Structure formats: structure tokens, C-alpha cells
Amino acid sequence: MKIWQNPIWRAATAVLLLSAAACGTESSEAEDADVHLADDAGDVAEDADGSADADDASGVSVPNYYSHIRPMMAARCNECHVEDAIAPMALDSYEGIKEMGRLALGAMETGVMPPWPPAEECGPPLKNRRHISEEEIAVFREWVEAGYPEGEPSDAPPPERDENAPVFDRGEPDLTLDWGFEYTPEPPLAEAVDDYRCFVIDPELNEDQFLNAVRTRPGNTRVVHHALVYSVSEDQAARLEQLEAEDERPGYTCFGGPRTSDPWLLSGWVPGTMPLEFEEGHGVRIEAGSKIVVQMHYNTVNDTEGSDRSLFDLYFVDQETTSRVTELVIIPLAELGLQIEAGDPDAVAVEEGPEIPLPLTLHGVAPHMHLLGKSIKVTAQTGAGEVCLMDIPEWDFNWQGFYLFEEPQVLVPPVLPRLECRYDNSPANQPDGRAPQEVRWGEGTYDEMCLNYFIVERPPGL
Ligand code: HEC
Question: Which of 69, 273, 324, 331 has the least CB density, counted as fewest CB within 10 Å?
Fold first, then answer.
């Protein structure tokens, strides 16, 4: 747990200040393809509004399934709502969405679907934002109220993009991480549906590499709920092997992190996330000799029997052809002393980082709490005033993200980062029907965290 303590942040700051290395750092997530989808879907909505082919007698356009709803579902929902994906029902057929019509409308109106926790008002624009516009919801509402007109398959607009075209076209990865066997998730508690497993993989790196892109390829999308990739230093490897040896099942059980003292987050994936891709020449350092730990969150609601063997394609910065690598570092800020009283419906934990006297180029953030978390907000006091960096007003453990900004943000010194976490520890909000208890920092399911990772560039020349 030492890793999360403020001294680490200070040490990282010291590295920023003192390091003589000429590299910068960064980590990222993949979100570009979502942006394209979102743009496409915006067009779809406009088409829907503008098209006259479904006009009724009064001249008012009545949306129908093939012309309007089907393309909307494809753009906004079906990355998750198809057969064999993580969502419980498929919405890619007329029958499928008709059956769910009112519920789907409600989910869109309340903002529950598509899932996208960050508040729009806070922070710079994010890559891969999932959203559905008010106009699109209005079209959907009209369709529901008109009694789900089906229209003709021949009315369907041509797909907005070639569905066979790869969204991520990077060719062969430099390295594919594979833990090497089919794993059958098994929740440790009889009533539970979640299994958190860590697998240790040796990337066999002889020299430091800079991770530029990660493509997560879930083996079984019915059970993989999220996957985090960490690097762990060589001297922690023995401890990890011991954890694997002590666990009766393959890998080892883990919830809040890989259970070592120095894990470095490299990437995170939840369903619907595009491959993580940093800008050209940018990368997160993976040291020679380090091990990789992948933390898998399995959810067995859809499939209690299925097994999984997920793969992770890594792409490194080509150090031979890149004149200057921009190194990204992923620095945690955490409130380790958090203490949440039993029964408290609105406990607050706040942590402020040390003041950083340098401009910081911030590429993104990744906030993290566990199951009692209600909301989390990341801000910074800077030389140019306070900036809001991320606000998740309704924290949902299942939809945590590794959020990259569309444009890196330069924070004017002095920079004082701040993190505010709220928790509901009332009887009504207890996992697995437990009685409320005092909760402190820890990696266990019933422990809590108040943590944010800052994805920053190491300043050039330092
Ligand atoms: C990124 C994945 C993802 C996307 C995109 C997505 N969903 Fe979902 N949806 C889920 C999952 C997973 C569930 C199951 C509940 C949960 O885990 O939140 C769900 C549940 C639902 C439910 C049931 C909610 C309830 O109250 O029981 C509806 C209805 C729904 N989605 C509709 C939609 C619609 C309509 C869209 C598009 C506008 C959409 N979803 C987009 C993943 C997604």
C-alpha cells in the first residue's frame, strides 16, 4: 500500500523535478473509434429528422425502425447490446428493441444508457465520449409513441461506416500478453456473481519499452466486465508467484489492485472501450525485467459456465525511428487515511497533493473507488485559477474509466491537485447484504479507496 501514499506522489514529483532523463511519460486509453461512432450517430439523427419518407398524412415525419431506430441502436447501443456481449439483452433486431421500447426510452431519458459517468460540465472534452443526443431521444420517443412502426428493410440508410473496416489498424502488435489457459470464473461467495482474478505474465523485456497502445481482446464478452493492466517491478515478482501458489485456483484473487506494493497502472478496459492509443511517440515506460499483472473482473450473470482467455496486444514506441520519446507517467493521488463511519450515508474523504512548481501537461485521469463510493471529483488549484478535471456525480464501480482528454491540458504552476470522494455507508447501500461497518482504505471488496491516477507528461529536458 506504500505506493498510494503521498510520499510516492512526492517522489514522483521529485522525479519530475530532478530527473535528468530526456523522456516524458504518458498512458492512454482508446477512444477514437467511439468518437467516430458518435459523429456518425449525430448524422443519423439529423437524417431521421430531415427525412420525409415516413411522413404520415399530416406531413409529420414518423420514425420507423429500419430508417431511424436501427442505425441509432447500431451507433449508440449495440457495442454492448448484441448477442454474446456484456449487456443482458440484444437490441439489434426489431423484436429486440420493440420489446424493450419503454424501458430503453426511460434508460435514455434518465441518462443511465448509454453508460457514461463523467459530468459534462466539468473538465476538458474527453476522447471516446459515449452519448446520445436529446434529438435522438426525441426520435426514439416518437417511435415508441407511434406504436413501433417497422418500416421496410430497403429504407435502411447505408451503414455510416464500413462495418468490415478495422477500427484499429495498427498491424501486428509488438507483444501479445496471454496468461495461457482458459479460466472459468467462479465467484468466491455463493450468492455473488463477481470474480476478481489476477494473472501474472512475463513480457520478457530485455530493455525498457514505451507503451503506445493497448488493444484488449476479451476472450468471452459474456463474462469479462473489466480488465486492468499493471506493470510490477521485478523484485515484486516472487511475492506474486507466492500469491498464485497459495490460491487453489489459477491466478490469484484480487479486488482493489494486484496486491503488490508497487503496481503501475498501464491501461484499463471496460466493455465498449476502444483500444487505448496515445499520441505518436508517446508512451508509458515498462522497465526491462518487470512483470505484467492483468486484473480481470468477471461477472457471471449472463453465463455461469463460460470460460475466458483474454488477450492484450501491446504496441510500443519504435525507439529506433522516434527521435524523442515523450514519456507519460501515471501518478496516483490517494487519501489513505480515509475512515468511513458505519451507517454514515454521506462520508467525505479529501486529499490534496503537494504543490507542483512546474507546468504539468495532463493527458487524462482515472478515478477509482469501490462499492460504497457515491461520487468522486478531481480538481486542481493552478496559477491560472481552479480547474475541474473530472466529476463523476454517481459513481458506479462497474463503469470506471481511464479517461483521456481530447487535447492534453497544460496546468499553469503552481499546481495543487485535489481529490474529493463521497461514500454511502448506510444500511441500504451494503454489498452482499452486510451490516454497515467502519470502513478504511484497503484492496478488499469491502474496503474502500479514494484514488485518482493523473496521466501526465514528464517535462522535456528534465
Ligand atoms: C458500454 C456498454 C453499453 C452501452 C453502449 C449501452 N448499454 Fe444498456 N446496458 C449495458 C449493461 C452492461 C446493462 C446491464 C445493467 C448494467 O450493468 O448497468 C445494460 C442495461 C440496459 C437496460 C436495462 C436497464 C434497466 O433499467 O434494467 C436498458 C433498457 C438498456 N441497457 C438500454 C440501452 C440503450 C437504449 C442503449 C443505447 C442508447 C444502451 N443501453 C447502451 C451496457 C450498455
Answer: 324
